[in-house]
Amino acid sequence: MVTVVCEGKTERNYLERIHDEAGQDSRFVLHFDPHAQPGKGFKPAEAVDRAIDVQHRTARSAQENEEEEEENSGPEQYVWAVFDRDQHNDVDEAIRRAHKNGVEVAFSTPSFDLWLLLHFASGPPANVSSDNKLLVRRLNAVQHFERYGRSSGGKGSDSKPKILNEAQLTALWTKRGNAVRLARQLVDRCSSGRCRAATRKAERGHDPTCDPLKRDTQTDFYRLLELLGVDDRDSAAGRRGRG
């Protein structure tokens, strides 16, 4: 089972769609920490603290059911914290604390909008030096994303700012493999010169000495898709009927 603590509503929209598309055939179970309230603006350190709490509760539960686990081993447990760079100054400490406690991190800089844009980009984008508005403008040039991030989706529209609608989610699902490929290329391009996307799926690509606050135009979100096993599958796989 994968438990996710999300900072934002957009990330949660995206992950919920992945579960709708692929989770039903038992490849994975996606569970959002019930204590997390996406969209409330908690900081990376707070997201990590919530995730660590989940990790501790999971470990205690496993110990309490140790005998039963030996007879009928359940699915492996993973806990992830998902957050952006934005203007936060606690990112480095949050990531260190997460790794120390066995929590994985899907960190995007300057924001999760980069991950969305990678679905439709023809190649890895140039560094944006934390100019997220530039990413959003590029995303606005993509079909169905014309109103994304703007003040209004228009009368009768469900394209609200930073909330992904059905058309957008469908387009993203279809192109997810492209996003994973380009995100890996961005890791290889990291300015530290020490980072390389791992050969094995879902493994960390950034070197432990790479300062996340100095990264430009990077996202680790691809690793979560690889872990869930939906990074390179046919877009129709596991799809539920939507009649």
Descriptive report:
The protein is α/β, with parallel strands linked by helices and 243 residues long. It is 40% helix and 9% strand. It has nine helices and five strands, in the order E-H-E-H-H-E-H-E-H-H-H-H-E-H. The protein has a five-stranded mixed β-sheet, sandwiched between helices. The radius of gyration is 18 Å and the shape is globular. The two termini are 28 Å apart. Residues 152-157 and 233-243 have low confidence and may be disordered.
Summarize the structure.
The protein contains nine helices and five strands; from the N terminus they run E-H-E-H-H-E-H-E-H-H-H-H-E-H. It is α/β, with parallel strands linked by helices.
Strand order of the largest sheet: 2-1-3-4-5
Number of helices: 9
The biggest sheet, with number of strands, parallel, antiparallel or mixed sense and barrel status, is:
5 strands, mixed
Count of extended strands: 5
Shape: globular
Mean pLDDT, rounded to whole units? Answer: 83
Head-to-tail CA distance between termini: 28 Å
How are the SSEs placed, and which strands pair?
Layout: E1 2-6, H1 9-22, E2 30-32, H2 44-64, H3 66-71, E3 78-84, H4 91-100, E4 104-109, H5 113-118, H6 132-140, H7 166-174, H8 176-188, E5 218-219, H9 221-228
Parallel strand pairs: 1-2, 1-3, 3-4
Antiparallel strand pairs: 4-5
Helix pairs in contact: 1-7, 2-4, 8-9
